[in-house]
């Protein structure tokens, strides 16, 4: 967009300004804006573009919604504005870019901006170039938005889960999700509290769905007999899987204990350990070996 700035700032009637991309504001931050303007005035005018229509002119807001609403809250009828020449599409993109570039923005706003630009036909490369965001970030967010992964998006923006991990979870089936979490742990992407939070999110997503508002509907919705049966079967299968893994771990431990037991009875091997001053072993392993030998009697 190459808008041509007006030669001077104009006083524009607030009621004639249309906000193309409205957003909710943090109440505390908004109060600070209002108080600041009330004390020292408007340091930077808003930016609008003029639309000539019957009964006009009217204006589309390019940037400065917070300042515009602050003036309105102060009871003003007009606001100083820099008028530029640009079409509606360019104004919308400029508004989205400004919101993406703000240092303090709500996470959901940024996601909505990227989604809106995608809906209007802009490519991932184009969005990244216009907003200054990385290609990988824009692609990942756009992909999660396309799949309706609201829970994962919220976790990405709250830095609970890295975007790359969220994408793996979104693309995985129920059994592969656990593998994705394990890979993230092995790579050091999820550890400690973040890993626990990720596991909780995955379980909530499985039970209540991808969308955040699904939580409310699921609380009031009556489950049919088939749904109850399916839920029971899924839960039973998860428990059977846990039992299989536990038995597998037990079998491996038995093999290890047996290997230690046989090695401890090999005079040559024990002689090597003695020469290397490696005769001691962890107390629990030694106790387990002793118990095993006693049982074999």
Automatic annotation (TrEMBL):
GO terms for cellular component: chromosome. Residues 10-100 form the ParB-like N-terminal domain. It comes from the Bacteria. Transmembrane segments: none annotated. CDD domains: ParB_N_like (cd16411). GO terms for biological process: chromosome segregation. PANTHER family: CHROMOSOME-PARTITIONING PROTEIN PARB-RELATED. This is ParB family chromosome partitioning protein. It comes from Ancylobacter aquaticus.
């Amino acid at each position: 967009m190459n808008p041509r700035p007006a030669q001077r700032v104009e006083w524009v009637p607030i009621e004639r300004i249309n906000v193309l991309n409205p957003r909710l504001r943090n109440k505390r931050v908004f109060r600070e804006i209002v108080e600041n303007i009330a004390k020292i005035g408007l340091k930077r005018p808003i930016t609008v573009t003029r639309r000539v229509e019957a009964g006009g002119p009217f204006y589309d807001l390019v940037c400065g919604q917070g300042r515009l609403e602050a003036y309105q809250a102060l009871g003003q009828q007009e606001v100083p504005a820099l008028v530029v020449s640009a079409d509606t599409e360019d104004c919308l993109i400029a508004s989205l870019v400004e919101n993406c570039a703000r240092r303090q923005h709500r996470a959901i706003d940024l996601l909505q901006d990227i989604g809106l630009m995608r809906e209007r036909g802009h490519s991932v490369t184009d969005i990244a170039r216009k907003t200054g965001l990385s290609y990988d970030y824009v692609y990942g967010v756009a992909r999660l938005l396309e799949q309706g992964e609201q829970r994962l998006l919220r976790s990405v923006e709250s830095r609970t889960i890295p975007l790359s991990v969220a994408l793996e979870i979104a693309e995985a089936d129920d059994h592969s999700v656990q593998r994705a979490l394990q890979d993230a742990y092995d790579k050091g992407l999820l550890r400690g509290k973040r890993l626990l939070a990720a596991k909780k999110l995955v379980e909530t997503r499985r039970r209540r769905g991808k969308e955040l508002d699904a939580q409310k509907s699921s609380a009031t919705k009556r489950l049919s007999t088939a749904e109850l049966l399916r839920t029971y079967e899924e839960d039973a299968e998860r428990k059977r899987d846990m039992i299989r893994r536990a038995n597998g771990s037990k079998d491996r431990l038995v093999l290890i204990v047996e290997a230690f037991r046989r090695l401890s009875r090999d005079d040559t091997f024990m002689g090597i350990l003695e020469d290397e001053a490696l005769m001691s072993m962890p107390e629990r392993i030694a106790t387990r070996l002793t118990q095993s030998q006693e049982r074999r009697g």
